[in-house]
Design a protein that fits this description.
Strand order of the largest sheet: 1-2-7-4-5-8
Mean pLDDT: 94
Number of strands: 8
Shape: globular
Distance between the termini: 13 Å
Structural class: alpha+beta
Radius of gyration: 18 Å
Largest sheet: 6 strands, antiparallel
Low-confidence stretches: none
Helix content: 40-55%
Order of helices and strands: EEEEEEEHEHHHHHHHHH
Oligomer: single chain
């Protein structure tokens, strides 16, 4: 069972999940990064370019903080592209002694999700790095369907400068981020019952076939099967 709520940390969501059944889970790319707790360990999920399949036999609970696109690297102290398509222990990023201390604190909390959120809040206060307005603009523009070149011009950046900043913040270039954000706009419409052809038109795909190819490439499933699996 999955549930989520807004975090006390800006630009973040707290979630918990206890998998049911034996089938593998499928985590879709969303431009986000997560700080995770599982089986008494702290881990990090980097930004995905394709669906991440979870182990079908793991039924123990998970807790996580999902950071909105571009916000996690400052807190973690690592460029996003170094974590792309990876799941790793927090000890791979931070000193082992510090991670042991933080892990013990989260494990001692009555609610691991709350303990994880407290950890993120303390870390954010220590880094004291304000959100980059440029990154906010990039995400908002691309999520609105504006072209990458137009977005770069609005910010006074060259295509190369925007690509470099995007790698650090999001883990991949702006074109990949735009594809992922468009995917979620399309899935949101399709889940509400919008016909696939209309969904494609309204979210900027050339046609329904283009939408189908993108869904299969990014998620590994045909659109109808993906909606049924998550329904």
């Amino acid at each position: 069972m999955y549930s989520e709520r807004a975090s006390r940390l800006p630009d973040a969501v707290v979630w918990t999940n206890t998998p049911t059944g034996t089938g593998a889970g499928r985590v879709l790319p969303d431009g986000c990064m997560d700080l995770l707790w599982h089986d008494g360990r702290l881990l990090v999920a980097g930004p995905d370019t394709h669906a991440h399949l979870t182990e079908g036999s793991a039924s123990s609970p998970w807790a996580g903080i999902r950071f909105h696109p571009g916000t996690a690297p400052a807190l973690l102290g690592v460029p996003a592209h170094e974590l792309r398509d990876r799941r790793l222990d927090l000890t791979d990023l931070w000193p082992a002694a510090e991670v042991r201390r933080l892990t013990a604190r989260v494990n001692a909390a009555a609610d691991p999700a709350r303990g994880l959120e407290d950890l993120a809040l303390r870390r954010a206060a220590e880094t004291a790095t304000p959100p980059d307005p440029v990154l906010r603009h990039v995400v908002a523009a691309l999520d609105a369907g504006r072209p990458v070149a137009e977005t770069a011009d609005e910010l006074g950046l060259s295509a190369r400068q925007l690509h470099r900043r995007s790698l650090t913040a999001f883990g991949y270039g702006p074109k990949t981020l735009a594809r992922i954000l468009r995917l979620h706009r399309a899935l949101s419409l399709a889940r509400r019952g919008t016909p696939f052809a209309e969904t494609a038109t309204r979210t900027g795909y050339a046609d329904q076939a283009h939408l189908s190819r993108e869904v299969r490439d990014l998620t590994g499933l045909p659109l109808g099967e993906l909606l049924a699996a998550r329904g």
